[in-house]
Amino acid sequence: MAKAPPFDGLTADASLERAARTILPALLDAVLAETPAVLHGDDVRATHDMRVAIRRLRTALDTFGDELSRKPLRKYAYATRRIGRRLGRVRDADVHLAVLRGALGGATANEAAGAGYAIERLLARRRQALSEFAVELSQFDRDGLTALLDHGADTP
Fold it and tell me: What angle do CA 126, 43, 95 make, to 5 degrees?
């Protein structure tokens, strides 16, 4: 199971700005830490863990939304949602592949042939989804979070 990152230096009396500056970078680091294993292509656990980390980041962006500048926040949140959707397609293929591979154990020869064909199609779909995810991730503005935090709260 994906563990939440530690939020070093965060205390209960920290301001929302301080909390955002501590939590958001740690969550982004947790997302990016899974990148090599996901892009390597065969670690389904890393794919799952990265999706969990992305959801945590998106939730935190929503939580701190009133503390951060709205326009840059919307842009960054949208980009985060896009990489999550792309990775979701990879994860969906992983789940379907696990089910089909599990069904092969008790399959007849005809069923095994059909399941084998479905597995090959799903593997091709997964490779395509992983490729699309890699492109989306390469365009993801990792420094956008820093800019968002540097811009700070909206001024009235």
Answer: 50
The domain made up of 16-151 has a fold known as CHAD domain (1.40.20)
Q: Domain extents for the chain?
A: 16-151
Q: Which residues contact 140 (CB under 8 A, 6 or more apart)?
A: 79, 80, 83
Give the predicted TM-score (pTM) of the model: 0.85
Burial 35-60 (b: 16+ CB within 10 A, else e): eebbbeeebbebbbbbbbbbbbbbeb
pLDDT tens digits, one per residue of 59-104? 999 999 888 887 888 888 999 999 999 999 999 999 999 999 998 8
